[in-house]
């Protein structure tokens, strides 16, 4: 890691990983092998741990250090639970655990963004958060398909969709946008329409389609976030 902008990008990925792990966990529970969720879950768990080590080693700020320590404390028991065979009756507990980890990872990301002292740090933070939201929208819907009762499902989904939409609008107006970034953001906007339609529909969407669409957004937003972060290297 060469600078704080890269740290913001990497810390932001940790937020996304919490929701991707939940998505994979549910896909395994649904016995849906599309995208090889069992292999992906192990890969993402390894990446989360490795990134956490890199962020701790790179950081020199006291408040961020305390935040990262809390992430590590939360992560250890979650790691053990994710290694167990996914069961529907445990899914609600896993969701709550990963929700807590997401909030703590988000705090760490915001502290890294604050350290940059630049507007660009906030743009990288917002762009990186879109990756997380793509996985969050997918995992919430998949829990519903699995039959996991979450009384706050509708509220969580509406908040995720609204935040994605307002964040995308802000990114599309950013002065940091290049022709390539603008092209990718427009592509993301079209893919996002699927989730807006899904949220308004009473029809059941198959998990495979949700998985595919969420990963399309994730891939494009990951490229965009990397392009924003690279501008700080010039």
Shape by Cα distribution: globular
Counting helices, strands and paired strands, the structural category is: mainly alpha
The separation of the N and C termini measures 15 Å
Compute the gyration radius: what is it? 17 Å
Instruction: Indicate the multimeric state.
Output: single chain
Beta-strand percent range: under 5%
Element order, helices and strands? HHHHHHHH
Extract low-pLDDT stretches.
none
Written account of the structure:
This protein is mostly helical and 234 residues long. Helix content is 82%, strand content 0%. It contains eight helices and no strands. Helix 1 (4-29) runs antiparallel to helix 4, helix 5 (119-146) runs antiparallel to helix 8 (207-230) and helix 6 packs antiparallel against helix 7 (179-200). 42% of the residues are buried.
What would a concise description of this structure say?
It is built from eight helices and no strands. The chain is an all-alpha fold and 234 residues long.
Keyword list:
single chain; 234 residues; mainly alpha; globular
Topology record:
Elements: H1 4-29, H2 37-58, H3 62-82, H4 88-116, H5 119-146, H6 153-172, H7 179-200, H8 207-230
Helix pairs in contact: 1-2, 1-4, 1-5, 1-8, 2-3, 3-4, 4-5, 5-6, 5-8, 6-7, 7-8
């Amino acid at each position: 890691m060469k600078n704080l902008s890269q740290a913001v990008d990497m810390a932001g990925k940790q937020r996304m990983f919490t929701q991707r792990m939940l998505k994979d966990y549910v896909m395994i529970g649904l016995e849906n092998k599309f995208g090889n969720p069992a292999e992906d879950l192990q890969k993402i768990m390894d990446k989360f741990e490795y990134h956490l080590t890199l962020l701790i080693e790179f950081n020199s700020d006291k408040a961020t250090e305390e935040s990262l320590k809390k992430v590590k404390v939360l992560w250890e028991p979650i790691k053990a639970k994710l290694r167990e065979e996914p069961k529907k009756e445990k899914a609600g507990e896993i969701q709550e655990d990963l929700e807590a980890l997401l909030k703590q990872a988000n705090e760490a990301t915001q502290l890294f963004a604050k350290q940059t002292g630049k507007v660009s740090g906030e743009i990288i933070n917002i762009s990186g958060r879109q990756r997380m939201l793509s996985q969050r929208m997918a995992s919430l819907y998949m829990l519903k398909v699995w039959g996991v009762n979450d009384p706050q499902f509708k509220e969580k989904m509406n908040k995720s969709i609204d935040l994605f939409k307002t964040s995308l609008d802000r990114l599309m107006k950013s002065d940091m946008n290049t022709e390539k970034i603008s092209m990718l953001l427009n592509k993301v906007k079209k893919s996002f329409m699927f989730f807006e339609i899904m949220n308004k529909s009473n029809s059941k969407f198959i998990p495979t389609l949700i998985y595919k669409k969420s990963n399309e957004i994730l891939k494009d937003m990951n490229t965009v976030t990397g392009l924003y972060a690279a501008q700080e290297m010039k």
